[in-house]
Amino acid sequence: MRLNIEVETVRLAEPFAISGYVFESADVLVVSVEDGAHRGRGEGGGVYYLGDDIDNMRAQAEAARDAVEAGLTREQLRSIMPAGGARNAIDAALWELEASRLGQPVWQLAGVPEPRPLRTTMTVGADTPAKMAERVNGYADAKAIKAKLTGDVDLDIARVAAIRSARPDVWLGVDGNQGFDAKELKALIAGLQLHGVSLLEQPLRRGFDADLEGLSSPIPLAGDESLLTLDDLAGAVGRFDVVNIKLDKCGGLTEGLLMAAEARRLGLGVMVGTMVATSLGTAPGFVLGQLADIVDLDGPLLIAEDREPGVVYDDGLLYAAPQIWGAAAAS
Description:
Elements: E1 2-18, E2 21-34, E3 39-44, H1 54-63, H2 65-69, H3 74-80, H4 85-102, H5 106-109, E4 118-119, E5 122-124, H6 129-138, E6 144-148, H7 153-166, E7 171-175, H8 185-194, E8 199-201, E9 221-223, E10 242-246, H9 247-250, H10 253-265, E11 269-273, H11 279-289, E12 294-296, E13 312-314, E14 317-319
Parallel strand pairs: 5-6, 6-7, 7-8, 8-9, 9-10, 10-11, 11-12
Antiparallel strand pairs: 1-2, 2-3, 4-14, 13-14
């Protein structure tokens, strides 16, 4: 067994703004695991707000090298590596390696239904209301839009109003990215409801989730930064309605599947999202997306140049063929 580790810089097509942060490029960790006859690949983008940057990911992957090359299982990987981008990349590589060895696609090994195209949100970075409306008009095929907010209630509601006016036909969700205070939530939710918003994601800072207890919101609340791994889900009950599972946060598809099952058991909705990612990083999320209520996997649309072959976006739907990642015989 041999673990190969590389770093690639992914440039965004244009600067992408959220609450408190602007992305222009991102470094991703790309790994492969080979046994001489079979190979598996994976990509991890890390978690910027946890300090899970490329140096951290590379160091964690190198620390796991001996165990990976000794042939550890995906379950064992969860016990020796912390959740994050490095474990996500290696976990994906082990899934694909197993698929190649057994002659079965990853979706079949994972026990999910045969993949079908999924409606995915198209994400609009925070900007002026007029520019955000212009941008959503550029997503002519989109059936679902997610708008990034910045924590300025009046401006954010104006942004949502402009988007809704431009696209009255789409499902619309918003992402607060931890930008709001609890005292602002009533006004924010009232304004969002007025414009037909169907999901409010992570309005408060991580660690302040108790302020959501007792909040009666007609708009479902999704936890993202507050819900990183399987261990966080018990605390979501009574605070969030939906858990946003991102493989870079939880450390890979292996844990993501466990999270989806536990979320269902707890009565929570399931959302699958992504950080900045190419098609290689998006494809494992597509497998998990077969079990999700909401899919937010538009990362490849935000970057300047994707891998070939890449995932396909058509008529507001996403499809990731197994040949991109997870086929029965990767070469």
